[in-house]
Amino acid sequence: MLKELVIKNFVIVDSQHILFGEGMNVITGETGTGKSLIIDALSLLKGGRTREDMIRREQKCAIIEGLFDLSHDLSIKHWLEDKGLIGEMEDEVVLTREILRDGKSRGRINGRSVPITALKDVSAFLVDIYGQNEHERFLASENQLNILDVFLDDQGKVMGSEYEKAFREMIQIQGEWEDLSGSDGEKLDDLREAVQEFERFQLDSENMGAVEDEFRMISGIQTYGEALDRFFQVLEGEEMGGGVGSLLAQMQGELERVPGGGVFQPVLKARDILKNIEIELQDVAYDLGRLRSSLDYSPEKIEQLERTVGEMERLKRKYRCRTTAELIGFRKDLTRKMIEAEEKETKQKKLEKELQERESYLFEKGRALAGKRREAAESLKKRLEAELLQLAFPRVEFEVVFEDISEEKPIFRSDGLDRCDFRITLNPGQKPGPIREVTSGGELSRIILGIKSIAVETENVPIMVFDEIDQGVSGKTAFWIGEKLKAISSGRQVICITHLPQIACFADQHLRVDKFSDAENTWAEVSPVEKRDERLKELVRMMGGESSSMPALQFAEILMERAGQ
Which residues lie below 8 Å from residue 26, measured CB to CB, with a gap of 6+? Predict the structure, then answer.
């Protein structure tokens, strides 16, 4: 229950501290006095959008603050406990909204700063506002579906929650798939084609340097071979001898003829040195002989190397690599990119499969929910037709028409596969038509009130606010609306702005809004209408009569007595 509402520097309200009571709270006043500002203030506590022109002239900010009694609502207490927002009084919560000149606004719960979304969350437990602009929203198909869902049985509501959860999961999977599909990067086919160009000549990042070195070597292989051949000619000499090896043998033979020891001791040393030289020359000849043999490349081998190096040069030009080192780096990047692209493709295929499975699951959940909605539609039809009889619709026929669900190309929405349309006829013999086409503003107001009055049995919102629900009605119909609002208020707090005495007479608490002005300012004031004679005078004013008019006063008395009964 809303106990107190504080409004400061809001439009034409300077400073007001308004007290509300249990049951039915009625707000009246002349047209243009600012009655709806109270509803606007409550809307801001519900996280509504702000505007700079909401701040009173020459003021820096506007403040709205509401004190709510939670003594009969455990769900809100649990929410506050979970968020760490319980105040000093566990059975009360204070919501605050501050509007600043720079376009920003602040929200507080029990004095603690919170995001505006937190105000929306907690106020959803507290207040349901039906404002003057709700008629149009009520006529939207998606909103009619939300209204219908209020009348789902427990199993249907569970199905709705399961569907919504599955839908969010599907959207998440779809988003991941779209991110992968739309992410920058080369296509896998292009990467594979580029890799195949390297693989045709067995060019990878490890062997391209070796291939280039080998090709550089065979480019001068004739020169290298001739030099080695001349080395062996010098070492071995011609057929008749004369090579270094032959001369070394001759030198050793000559020294063998000289005795060793004594004065010829150096001969022994010379023999050893020459012997070592012979052994080392044999090793050198062996190693260089093997090298010379390896330089005997076949023409096919040389041709293959030339083709491979030619391909490397072509790839350098194609991929704008100036050196072999750059080409090697490009080949490494190509491998890395292809691995990443293959992983991406694998993940995409996995997500596609998950998406198909999720859509199939969601379709089944949606069909089951659609079945429950059709049951709810039958329940709503019976209950609303009975309710509208009490609101001056003696011969009414109501129905909910659903769109067919396509099995081939179902349209998944966050609220299900369905779209529905409320249809009604108020005249016997006529086929029900869309509410938007066959009802006037006053008739629509009563229909909405009828829906609200039966919805309160399933919705546990403790405060219901009606801003001029009596649009387009008068006479007995207005009195019936008043009775209905009074009945709703027996289980919760009702706050109602009205221009009709037939409704105002049912008030448990009556508030009046007046507007004043002087040469510089205009301001609105809210005051309680407490005494019986004050209430009678206000009812007379609402009838358009004089406060001293006996017939008007008598009629006001009759209204008060009937309301009291």
Answer: 496, 497, 498, 503, 504, 506, 507, 509, 510, 511
